Amino acid sequence: MVKLRADPDVRVMVLRAAPGRAFCSGVDVKEGWRVPGEDRTPFDQEDPGEWLGPKSNKVWKPFIVAVHGMAAGGAFYWLNEADIVICTEDATFFDPHLKFGKISAVEPIGAMGRIPLQEITRMVLLADAERIGAATALRISLVTEVTTHKPCGPRAQELAAMIATTPSGCRAGVASCHLGGTEPAARAGSYQMHCVTSKSANRWPPTPAPAELRSKGWTVR
Amino acid sequence: MSDAADVQSATDMNYSTLLVEINDGIATITLTGPSA
């Protein structure tokens, strides 16, 4: 993610999974994610998924996630930091942590403000006894579109191509949306005012998209 | 342009490979599945 942040050729990011039953099934509970023999106290451990999401790494380029099949547990590292999530009709979303006696924390906390609280608590408490299907995911705004095409990577590419036509200043929009939902309003607002008014920002005004990427029209959904 | 990046360390979530392709301003990241 950090490499993509600095790459001027990258205007939009799309995350998808290779064909198969799952987009992401989370950590293998038998294998775990710690180095064998490692015995750190809980206070000395770092989040193993901290490097996965763009927002956690201050990457403010638009991030589209295209889900097919199962999206469980750790998948929410990406879902919670996506600007647009779409899925196929066979997609299912769930958080199995409690089934294994694990604490569910990153997933529900990151989902707050994105989907209704009661949908989060239901997902957490029912673990993998109930999975959120595509239609429900659309209803609760976990996704914004269910595609009839499988895989949905091509549709994600279409959306990305539309976004790639915008000037680079859209990164400020991504930051605004994310910080506005995760930071206290005053802090988020002051950050954005800093971006708008600072000399640094003025030295790097929004760069127009290359002519070949410019918008060729609009669609209705 | 395309690139393949290995996971960062043994303590990270166990994706064996993340394929990254960059075309027309779009970086497409493909999860290839957990390592065996």
Explain what the structure shows.
The complex is a heterodimer of chains A (221) and B (36). Chain A has nine helices and eight strands. Chain A has 221 residues and is of the alpha/beta class. Chain A folds into two domains: 2-26 and 52-163, 2-enoyl-CoA Hydratase, Chain A, domain 1; 170-209, no CATH class. In chain A, strands 1-3-5-8 form a four-stranded parallel β-sheet. Chain A has a four-stranded mixed β-sheet with strand order 2-4-6-7. The radius of gyration of chain A is 19 Å and the shape is globular. Chain A starts with a helix and ends in an 18-residue tail after the last helix. The mean pLDDT of chain A is 84. Chain B is 0% helix and 50% strand. The model of chain B is unreliable at 1-13 (pLDDT under 50). In chain B, strands 1-2-3 form a three-stranded antiparallel β-sheet, with no helix packed on it. Chain B is elongated. At the A-B interface, strand 1, strand 2 and helix 6 of A face strand 3 of B. Strand 1 (12-17) of chain A pairs parallel with strand 3 (26-31) of chain B, so a sheet runs across the interface.
SSE blueprint:
The complex is a heterodimer of chains A (221) and B (36).
Chain A: H1 2-6, E1 12-17, E2 22-24, E3 63-67, E4 70-72, H2 76-79, E5 84-88, E6 92-94, H3 106-111, H4 117-126, E7 132-133, H5 134-139, E8 145-147, H6 153-163, H7 170-182, H8 185-197, H9 199-203
Parallel strand pairs in A: 1-3, 2-4, 3-5, 4-6, 5-8
Antiparallel strand pairs in A: 6-7
Chain B: E1 2-6, E2 17-23, E3 26-31
Antiparallel strand pairs in B: 1-2, 2-3
